[in-house]
Amino acid sequence: MTKKRKSRGRDKGGKGRSELVHCSNCGGLVPRDKAKKVTARMSLVEPSLAKDLRDKGAWVPTSYVTKYYCISCSVHYGVVRVRAREERKLP
After folding, report:
1. Domains of the chain, residue spans
2. How many CB atoms within 10 Å of residue 69?
3. Cβ distance 11 to 30 under 8 Å?
4. Which of the 8 DSSP states describes residue 60?
5. CA 32 to each of CA 22, 54, 75, 90: distance values in angstroms, whole numbers, following the listed order
6. Residue 10 CB contacts under 8 Å (≥ 6 apart), including other chains
7. CB 33 within 8 A of CB 77
8. pTM of the model
């Protein structure tokens, strides 16, 4: 059978089965090594209030939010792009 990608679409190597995570958009179960991980910084205060607080010298707390997307949702949201056939086999 032909190989479409060098990694077979996973980051697993020879590890066997990997744990499943839920897609943040559609809720589907995706292997963790196949899912696309997106980490974004999120402020706990709304932007207009945060700007006023920063002007007065206050520290505005932020937290990191990690989301996992399945391949179809990550293509739809522009996290990854569809690549040409020759580029798919590159590492």
Report:
1. 20-78
2. 23
3. no
4. P
5. 9, 38, 17, 21
6. 18, 31, 33, 34
7. no
8. 0.76
Instruction: Give the tokens for residue 30.
Output: 């995706």
CATH match of 20-78 with 3.40.640.10: no
> 10 Å Cβ neighbour count for 60?
14
Give residue 9's pLDDT band: very low, low, confident or very high (50, 70, 90): confident
Nearest-angstrom CA–CA distance, 39 and 64:
7
Summarised one tens digit per residue, pLDDT across range 69-91 is 999 999 999 999 998 988 888 76
Q: C-alpha dihedral over 77, 4, 10, 27, to 10 degrees? A: 40
Structure tokens that stand for 53 in this block: 């607080």
Residue type present at position 14: G
**Res 91: pLDDT:** 67
Which residue has 């590890």 as its token pair?
15
Kindly state the tokens that stand for 4: 């479409």
